[in-house]
TrEMBL record:
GO terms, molecular function: UDP-glycosyltransferase activity
Residue stretches spanning the membrane: none
Topology in the lipid bilayer: Single-pass type II membrane protein
Species annotation: Oncorhynchus mykiss
Cellular compartments annotated: Membrane
Gene that produces this protein: LOC110500100
Keywords: Glycoprotein, Glycosyltransferase, Membrane, Signal, Signal-anchor, Transferase, Transmembrane, Transmembrane helix
Pfam families tied to this protein: Glyco_transf_8
Full protein name: Glycosyltransferase 8 domain-containing protein 2
UniProt family annotation: Belongs to the glycosyltransferase 8 family.
Basic and acidic residues bias: start-end ranges: 37-57
Length: 364
């Protein structure tokens, strides 16, 4: 009997000891191992993991860039992205806007090339938003592509940033994109553009190809609606292919609604045309932003490289430019075109083989 009591006592002591050890483990356990945060800014895209970054969350310290990627111009958009990403230490977030049919190609172009390390989100643009606002024009049908009007609808895109850079897909960035992003917008201005009267060094080339640099070249001043605007026809125009936008101010001033109103006005009264203005996306911007925009450093928008297959800038001047824009008919992925070497160094071949360069010896 005494032995049984002794055994029970030992078992009871062991039970108490086990309970104490469990309580100690719960109360004094060390901190759990933190989860590793995925690195969002990678400066070596070649070594980036093959993980889709499309779902990456936009960060407050990112430089947000909006760029359109049409299927037939996909290589241009990717060259632009590559030039931006390769020339900055800043964390850049790309909002890549495209149509439904090109979403798969856009994703493949990024994930199967050196761009797989970028932070991005693919946004689908619904062309139905343009119904009843744009009429067909046979002179330049390419200028009526729905993505040409994405710049009008920036606040309607799934964008979390309050300030963004918008870039056309025929540009190459040679400078640090954060310098453009930090352009100080004047009070009450929703955007910053480069005026067409800015760089004296570009004037000779512009005159040689017959480029217009004033409102006279974009609006039909024979129409009463245009004269009623009170805009001097000799006022300097600007190119809306590169700009910095304040989304909050854009919403406050109802810029999108104003642009739509002028699109509908042109639909009824033809106050501008693609033949006159080189496109129907520029004139509404010129009207709405007249005398209401901040001027950016002209070296951040050296343009007209695609206006002529013969007129060239001095190479030394282009080397010092922060951004080059092949606006016009002669694109760097086609032939003929000037200053191809400055564009080709950023071109990434399409991994699917759909986008091909046009060169004298054929398509490559």
């Amino acid at each position: 009997m005494a032995l049984l009591r002794k055994i029970n006592h030992i078992l009871l002591m062991m039970l108490v000891l086990i309970v104490c050890l469990l309580l100690h483990s719960k109360l004094f356990r060390g901190p759990s191992r933190p989860k590793l945060k995925r690195t969002e800014t990678r400066k070596d895209p070649e070594r980036a993991p093959k993980v889709p970054v499309e779902k990456a969350a936009e960060g407050g310290d990112d430089i947000p860039v909006v760029i359109c990627a049409a299927e037939e111009r996909m290589g241009g958009a990717m060259a632009t992205i590559n030039s931006i990403y390769s020339n900055t230490d800043a964390s850049v977030f790309f909002y890549i806007v495209t149509l439904r049919d090109a979403i798969k190609l856009t994703r493949q172009y990024i994930e199967k090339t050196k761009l797989k390390g970028i932070k991005y989100k693919i946004l689908e643009f619904n062309p139905m938003v343009l119904k009843g606002k744009v009429k067909p024009d046979s002179s330049r049908p390419d200028l009526l592509h729905p993505l040409n009007f994405v710049r009008f609808y920036l606040p309607l895109l799934d964008i979390s940033h309050q300030r963004v850079i918008y870039l056309d897909d025929d540009v190459i960035v040679q400078g640090d994109i954060k310098d453009l992003y930090h352009t100080k917008l004047e009070k009450g201005h929703a955007a910053a553009f480069a005026t067409d009267c800015d760089l004296p060094s570009t004037h000779e080339m512009v005159r040689s190809v017959g480029m217009q640099t004033t409102y006279m070249g974009f609006l039909d001043y024979r129409k009463q609606e245009v004269r009623d605007l009170g805009i001097n026809p000799s006022d300097c125009s600007f190119n809306p292919g590169v700009f910095v936008a304040d989304i909050g101010e854009w919403k406050k001033q109802k810029i999108t609604k104003q642009l739509e109103n002028w699109m509908q006005e042109n639909l009824k009264k033809n106050i501008y045309s693609s033949a006159m203005a080189g496109g129907v996306a520029t004139p509404p911007m010129l009207i709405v932003f007249h005398d209401k925009y901040t001027i950016i450093d002209p070296l951040w928008h050296v343009r007209h490289l695609g206006w002529s297959p013969d007129a060239r800038y001095p190479e030394t001047f282009l080397q010092g430019a922060h951004l080059l824009h092949w606006n016009g008919r002669f694109k760097p992925w086609d032939y003929p075109c000037v200053h191809l070497d400055l564009w080709e160094k950023w071109f990434i071949p399409d991994p699917t083989g759909k986008f091909l360069l046009v060169r004298p010896e054929g398509k490559i």
